[in-house]
Amino acid sequence: MEAPKLLLLFLLIRCDLFIGKSLGDGVTPQEAKELRDEVREMFYHAFNGYMDHAFPRDELRPLSCGGEDTLGGYALTLIDSLDTLALLGDKERFTASVEWIGKNLRFDINKTVSIFETTIRVLGGLISAHLIASDHNTGMRIPSYDDELLHLAEDLARRMLPAFDTPTGIPFGSVNLLHGVDEHESKITSTAGGGTLTLEFGILSRLTNDPIFEQVAKNAVRGLWARRSKINLVGAHIDVFSGDWTQKDAGIGTSIDSFYEYLLKAYLLFGDEEYLFIFQEAYKAAMKYLFNDPWYVEVNMNSAALVWPLFNSLQAFWPGLQVLAGDIEPAIRTHAAFFSVWRRYGFTPEGFNLATLSVQQGQKSYPLRPELIESTYWLYKATRDPRYLDAGRDMLASLQYGARCTCGYCHISDVEFHKQEDHMESFFLAETVKYLWLLFDLAAGPDNLVENGPYKYIFSTEGHLLPATPQISLVREHCSYFGAYCRNSNLRLKTHSHESAETNSSGSQTRPADSSFLSRSSYQSSSPVSGLKGLCPGLTHGQRFGISFMTPVDPSSEDEQSSQRETTEIQSHSVVLISNPNPEVSLSGSHNDHENDPAHAPQEESPSSKQRR
Ligand SMILES: *[C@@H]1O[C@H](CO)[C@@H](O)[C@H](O)[C@H]1NC(C)=O
Ligand SMILES: *[C@@H]1O[C@H](CO)[C@@H](O)[C@H](O)[C@H]1NC(C)=O
């Protein structure tokens, strides 16, 4: 790994030059407003293009102004755009869209679809929109709304359940929505494919009172983690029957990325410490074996031997995840390195070879991905360093000059020649535009659901807003895991009026006597913490608010026996400690002691990343 390291140094120097230059012309609050409004216009250019030319097909063909079905043929881009509409405050279009979907969408269709894509785009889109439309606290409640989207989500998730019927618990990659798993379906799936379902499925269990969804998703994570290597790395592809890894390259990008993301976020949203422990071990190993400061490489999961010295554009979500975990220093360096690649080409290519410092053959495209923008938003939020606004302005300019086309925004098929291609993935509106808008709105003095709303929000890997409502956040497990005592053992979780309507849906009568997370033994209705009603009184502030602060790992204390020492390590130095939420994201108004310490991270969530898009 020496050779690439030297060359990387060279690249880094160049990127420092770029940054030095852009620091000079900072973005003023007024300019941030203008940029935010430009992003809004960008959204409508693409959204209206989709509605006029592609709807109800899945995605827009922005050059030829037509539509194409890319997933299930069910208005994918509209579903993926719902919470962006709400975030932008467009009540009229949000309402009309939710109503159309409630009336017209059906999943009893003979289509074989990806479990991963369907979960993050469709299930996540429906759930986030449901939680906005059904809740007056969001300011976007739809009076006529009667849980149509929740019922659709539940129906869809049930149609995916047959995929989880495997010896390992890791689901097949695809399922037919009408017939279950196809006879000749591949038994090979990616780590991200099996490990990126916990948020959507977990929320669905809490909203429907049926534990099955959460159980299968958690079981899949356990199935993957149980097959980790001795050095706590996971591979890229696995056989869901034998549990053998068929592709042993460990990395943080393609095929694995959001596995890491959902471990941390599932902990943050549900307070389930099992996910935190796995994340801590997985994160430590990633930083030890994959981090080649400031880049990340792919190594063999068993031997840690270098396989690919390659920047992969999906890796760009990682600095954002590190912000959530509180590990800001390496995030800053890595973001700067990744952004230097963007600056060099105007976009990030799917692959950039760190040994030759050139675009990787066959990986020249930029399909409008959000990851670098997403990390830029998180780093700006954590540091308020104006360099991130400059970076955002650069990326916006690239999209406007390079990707804007007749009816929307076009993929770039080759970042060296900026050739446009006739596709616009639905995640452009779900994520890319959303994070850009959030970045500039934050700089302008935010007024939106995420920054000023009634709940702490976790972003799914598709950028969907998942609120930590009392019903969703795991009140009881917080209490039991943290050893806090909680009384009121037979109190039901009090839900907001309209959210309780679905407690009678299928499964509720037959659910197991103690379906762990659903027996809300610990609910404390009198808690003064307004944002998260129901927190148990015995928790410290940090415990209540989830996250988490990491200090840089002290290399001298790292060794191979980490697994045996996990508990003490957690407390002594490395990875996530339970402390210090960032004041502006703590929803309750109760502030913490470190609010002005930039080294401490904000505690909610967000990154996203797409395994194999
Ligand atoms: C489902 O679709 C497949 C492939 O498109 C087709 O062969 C099959 O006959 C269809 N089944 C039904 C019940 O429509
Ligand atoms: C709940 O389900 C039971 C049994 O299916 C049914 O009899 C009852 O009417 C339902 N209650 C509500 C409020 O829907």
How are the secondary structure elements laid out?
Elements: H1 2-23, H2 29-53, E1 59-61, E2 66-68, H3 76-87, H4 91-104, E3 112-114, H5 115-133, H6 148-160, E4 174-176, E5 188-190, H7 191-195, H8 198-208, H9 212-225, E6 237-239, E7 245-247, E8 249-250, H10 257-270, H11 273-289, E9 291-292, E10 295-296, E11 298-300, E12 306-308, E13 310-312, H12 318-325, H13 328-345, E14 351-353, E15 358-359, H14 371-383, H15 387-403, E16 404-405, E17 408-409, E18 411-414, E19 419-421, H16 427-444, H17 449-452, E20 457-459, E21 465-467, H18 475-481, H19 541-544, H20 566-572
Antiparallel strand pairs: 1-2, 3-4, 5-6, 6-7, 8-11, 9-10, 11-12, 13-14, 14-15, 16-17, 18-19, 20-21
Helix pairs in contact: 1-13, 2-15, 2-16, 3-4, 3-5, 3-16, 5-6, 5-8, 6-8, 8-9, 10-11, 12-13, 12-14, 13-14, 14-15, 14-16
Kindly describe this structure.
The chain has 613 residues and is mainly α. The protein has 20 helices and 21 strands. The strands form nine sheets. A three-stranded antiparallel beta sheet has the order 5-6-7. Helix 12 (318-325) packs parallel to helix 14 (371-383). The chain is globular. Residues 1-24 and 477-613 have low confidence and may be disordered. Bound molecules: 2-acetamido-2-deoxy-beta-D-glucopyranose (2 copies). Its EC number is 3.2.1.-.
